Amino acid sequence: MAAAVPLLCALLLAAAAALENGVARTPPMGWLHWERFLCGTDCTAQPRRCVSEQLFTEMADVMAAEGWREAGYQYLCIDDCWAAPTRDERGRLRADPRRFPGGIRRLADYVHARGLKLGIYSDVGNKTCAGFPGSYGHYELDAQTFASWGVDLLKFDGCNSGSLELLAEGYRRMSLALNKTGRPIVYSCEWPFYLRPMQQPNYTEIKQYCNHWRNFFDVYDSWNSIKSILEWTALHQDSLVKIAGPGGWNDPDMLVIGNFGLSWDQAVTQMAMWAIMAAPLFMSNDLRRISPEAKWLLQNKEVIAINQDPLGRQGYRITKDKNFELWERPLSGRAYAVAVLYQQEIGGPQNFSFSLAFLGNGLACNPACSVRQILPSSRDWGVHNWVSSLSVEVNPTGTVLLRVAAL
Ligand code: GLA
User: A single GO CC term, please (predicted)?
Assistant: First the structure.
């Protein structure tokens, strides 16, 4: 036991340092290939859709040319299926040579030259979820390899890890290995998601090692998926909300806006609610072909400002009243983001009235406040006082997002 104490101290110090890796002070923003492009490896049949150097260079060009970078979307991230099926003769991971002819180093240079950062993917077990080589037994080497390529973010999946002990140990060891490289690398984990079916995650510990972490199932391009993520988050908000903050965030998974499955109102809901939840904003869509409406929503400065608020507090559901949900998120400068979500999937728009005294434990509008609507369209609601109530009209499965600032 006595011998274990210095070791424990060293581990704790290292863990604290991992948290203070200087990155993700606000939720990271970028693009991640998975939801839209999955594991496309046949570049002969599908040259523009396969997971390849071309996909990422084209996406980097668009991100730099069409306002995405300026809006804050900085990390261009590779998900699963980038690697060759085997390691090289020195045991290092390598990109599939046919699909990434210049390797990851050249791609990183290309991405950096456009003012963006590059993310990559690996897995704590001996295989990734899609069956490519995992990092088990190679944590130090893989961290060094990623750093030597100029990688800025690692998404570390939790498939095929063998046991809960190996899962936790692997997530810790990769965090320390990344730290040791000296390169600031955002560390994106799925540790609590893989742990939860068997064990209640220890979020205090997870935050010491990870910059953000997935808690729940993969997002799909559907309203059902968005709805279930929101409901799950609200049901677990007592343990999730308090842990989020600069350097460590709950990750409800990618934005699927601009794809096929969400109506306009549902896309508004995803954008508004991901801002309320202080979620990392990783779009998974085809930026080369995206509607002007989806682009307007994803680049909306006021919603992004809420998501990126420097106070870094995650929002929560205040009430669920029949089919209406009222959420709020405390912001810097005595302000609150407020969302009214209408869950009914039949009929038309409905009004929801609520007293401003409900917000911020009575403080948001005390003695008065200004109210601004941000989504679905911007609108000034003027000055209100503590006893005022507000009535907003919300479309089925839509959300009205407001910014309420105390005066
Ligand atoms: C898991 C993750 C997804 C994605 C796939 C890739 O399902 O949760 O986000 O990375 O693996 O195989």
Answer: extracellular region
Q: Enter the tokens of residue 197.
A: 């079916």
Which H or E run contains 223? helix 223-235
Rounded to a whole number of angstroms, the CA Rg of the chain reads 22
375 closest CA partner among 391, 390, 394: 394
Counting ligand 1 atoms within 8 A of each CB, the residue from 34, 39, 220, 225 with the most, and so the one to mutate, is: 34
Task: Compute the distance from residue 193 Cα to the ligand 1 centre, in Å.
Answer: 11
Per-residue pLDDT reduced to its tens digit, 325-383 = 999 999 999 999 999 999 999 999 999 999 999 999 999 999 999 999 999 999 999 99
Rounded to the nearest angstrom, the distance between the alpha carbon of 378 and the centre of ligand 1 is 36
Cβ pair 195, 217 in contact under 8 A: no
CA 163 to chain centre: 26
124-149 residue pLDDT tens: 999 999 999 999 999 999 999 999 99
Output the residue whose Cα is nearest ligand 1's atom 3.
218
Nearest one of 249, 258, 248, 247 to 276, comparing CA atoms: 249
**Cα separations in angstroms, 142 against 84, 92, 147, 172:** 14, 7, 8, 14
Question: Residue 223 has which token pair?
Answer: 């309203």
Q: Which atom of ligand 1 is nearest to the CA of 214?
A: 8
Instruction: Answer for the pair 27, 212: CB distance below 8 angstroms, yes or no.
Output: yes
pLDDT at 20: 72
In the predicted structure, residue 2 carries a pLDDT above the cut 50? no
Distance CA 15, CA 29 (A): 24
Alpha-helical regions (H) of 66-202: 68-71, 103-113, 139-149, 164-180, 191-195
Question: 106: which residues sit within 8 A by CB, 6+ positions away?
Answer: 53
User: Does an H or E element contain 270, and which?
Assistant: helix 264-276
Task: Summarize pLDDT for 273-304 with one digit per residue, the tens.
Answer: 999 999 999 999 999 999 999 999 999 999 99
Q: Could you give the residue numbers annotated as active site?
A: 157, 218
Compute the distance from residue 123 Cα to the ligand 1 centre, in Å.
Answer: 10
The structure's pTM equals 0.95
- Is 34 near ligand 1, meaning CB less than 6 Å away? yes
Q: Which atom of ligand 1 is nearest to the CA of 217?
A: 8
Give dist(CA 111, CA 217) in Å, integer.
30
Residue 108 Cα to ligand 1 midpoint, Å, equals 22
Cα separations in angstroms, 176 against 34, 190, 392: 26, 16, 49
**What's the chain's length in residues?**
407
